[in-house]
Specification:
single chain, 228 residues
């Protein structure tokens, strides 16, 4: 079983966001014309309060980030990271302007032509700004989005995964990671919400298969691949 994470492209150790400090600098320059064709502020005509900033994230002269503002505080951002004319990243901030979660559209699931892009993955940040959880969504047979994979991190290191392989909104596969490597995968083959088979890996190789758990969940049958 491959140990690659096939659900998206991200850096779990460092949440890459529209730089809030840069936004604050732009806020300071938005009292008038900042001189930039891309970094512009929009204001509430009644209150004069800043409500949006546009930003050129990569400095190529094209607007690729739109940030909703409440005065000097960023609320949320929408980004077109590949500049194809469609939003593909979303960010939300707390009262202090820190990132709380970031969403994106996975390369494998681009929106249909003419459809409004929506995120199918959400990354949740911990208080220190590192990744704490990532949730991936797929569309079920009713057209609703359901979480099909949750990744849990400690100190930005992946430690466990819960997965719904058949899209019925019930977890049926569990992964345990140790030191950045897959250690265990457990499967619910009886469709009762409980694991009944476990694979154990060492250095990326399958070394043990266990099955037939008893009433306490202890596996009673063990098979060593290759008969070692």
């Amino acid at each position: 079983m491959a140990q690659t994470r096939r659900y998206g492209i991200y850096d779990s150790g460092r949440v890459v966001v529209a730089p809030v400090l840069v936004l604050m600098t732009l806020v300071a320059g938005c009292g008038g014309n900042s001189g930039s064709e891309t970094s512009k502020g929009s204001y509430d005509p009644q209150t004069g309060r800043l409500v949006q900033i546009t930003y050129d994230r990569n400095g190529n002269g094209r607007i690729d980030t739109w940030t909703r503002m409440d005065g000097a505080r960023p609320i949320s951002s929408e980004l077109d990271t590949n500049e194809d004319g469609r939003i593909d990243r979303w960010e939300e901030y707390d009262e202090q302007g820190k990132l709380t979660r970031a969403g994106w559209t996975r390369p494998a699931t681009p929106p249909a032509p003419g459809a409004t892009p929506t995120p199918d993955a959400w990354l949740y940040a911990s208080a220190d700004g590192k990744t704490s959880r990532i949730e991936f969504f797929d569309t079920d047979n009713t057209g609703a989005q359901v979480v099909t994979r949750r990744e849990f991190y400690e100190g930005a290191v992946l430690v466990r995964v819960e997965e719904d392989k058949d899209g019925d909104d019930i977890v049926d596969q569990w992964e345990t990671w140790e030191g950045g490597a897959l250690k265990y995968v457990e499967f619910d083959e009886g469709k009762d919400g409980r694991p009944d088979r476990r694979f154990t890996y060492t250095n990326g190789a399958l070394v043990l298969i266990e099955s037939a758990p008893d009433a306490k969940g202890v596996y009673t049958q063990r098979v060593v691949p290759g008969g070692r």
